[in-house]
Amino acid sequence: MTGLQLLQNHTSTANADPVMNGLSEPDVGCRIRGGMAIDFMVMPLSRYISGDFVTPMMRLAWQQGHPYKLIGPDGVREFPPGLPFGGEDAPRRRLRIIETVLDDLRVLPRKIATHLWDERSEAEARFYRVDVGSYHALVEYYAAHPGRAFLGLRRGPKVSHCTASLFLPCNFSEPVDMTSPFERTAAAASRAFAELSRAKYPAEARWAAETLSAALEDSCKLRQPLIVDW
Fold first, then answer.
1. 104 C-beta neighbours (distance < 10 Å), count
2. Residue 165, CA distances (Å) to 122, 159, 183 in order
3. 160 neighbors 3 (Cβ within 8 angstroms)
4. In whole angstroms, what is the distance from residue 214 CA to residue 194 CA?
5. Which partner from 35, 92, 116, 195 sits 20 to 30 angstroms from 72, CA to CA?
6. pLDDT in tens, 6-24
7. In sequence order, what are the beta bridge partners of 186?
8. Residue 202: cis peptide before it, omega within 30 degrees of 0
9. How many other C-beta atoms can be found within 10 angstroms of the C-beta atom of residue 52?
10. What sign for the dihedral angle of Cα 222, 223, 228, 229?
């Protein structure tokens, strides 16, 4: 599978929302080249699936005294102050699906299933934004360089952790294909971070590499998944 195919296989529940790059407060001056971007979102999976979150751009609109508006295939959605991305019912919907999400996670390989994070966490979600071209270059690089070889012996995974679309805060050696609670390739956040710290990726991938590194560091520190969204 090529890096482009890996990129196309990612899924999204909030792909039209322009989440800003940063740890907490949005960087108002951030611009996205070409009008397209990819978002790294650090939060429990139940929160992401239910839409029980508010993005930095939503907060920015409200702070300026405006409702947040999102243009999608069904027209314009308007979010008054305080309304989660998934709508008024998002917090209740999240509570209803938490146990189902946990049941899905418990059937994954043992190193994941026995080291689950707190799906009920109310910690502030973290959002990062990166240019799609830079991220494409990064995924292409790691798709072609999954592991380093020494004297004919592989010193790394068969598939790079950095090509995944979901990063989990637990340690396992090879990325895992999962079908539920949604279809993703899941990787270990700590291993992806280690790959990024030692790679000589191309210059055009630098923005994505630095942004992903910061998001992965948050994922490990907060012990929460990192979802790739667009």
1. 16
2. 23, 13, 10
3. no
4. 12
5. 92
6. 333 333 434 444 344 443 3
7. 166, 176
8. no
9. 24
10. negative
Q: Are 10 and 228 in contact (CB under 8 A)?
A: yes
pLDDT in tens, 135-176: 999 999 999 887 554 334 445 558 899 999 999 999 999 999
Whether the Cβ atoms of residue 84 and residue 53 lie closer than 8 Å to each other = yes
What is the pLDDT, as a whole number, of residue 73?
Answer: 86
Assign 87 to helix, strand or coil.
coil
Which pTM value belongs to this model?
0.81
Going by C-beta distance under 8 Å and a sequence separation of 6 or more, which residues neighbour residue 171? 111, 115, 188, 190, 191
Bridge-based pairing state of the strands 68-72 and 75-79: antiparallel
Give the total residue count for the chain.
230
Share of the chain above pLDDT 90, in %: 71
In this prediction, residue 184 has a pLDDT band, given cuts at 50, 70 and 90, of very high
Would you state the structure tokens that stand for residue 72, as one six-digit string? 């999608």
Q: State the Cα angle at 68 between 64 and 73, rounded to 5°.
A: 155
Do residues 42 and 222 make contact, with C-beta atoms less than 8 angstroms apart?
Answer: yes
* Residue keyed to tokens 């969204």: 229
CA–CA distance from 208 to each of 38, 84, 212 (Å)? Answer: 9, 27, 6
Domain ranges of the chain: 3-229
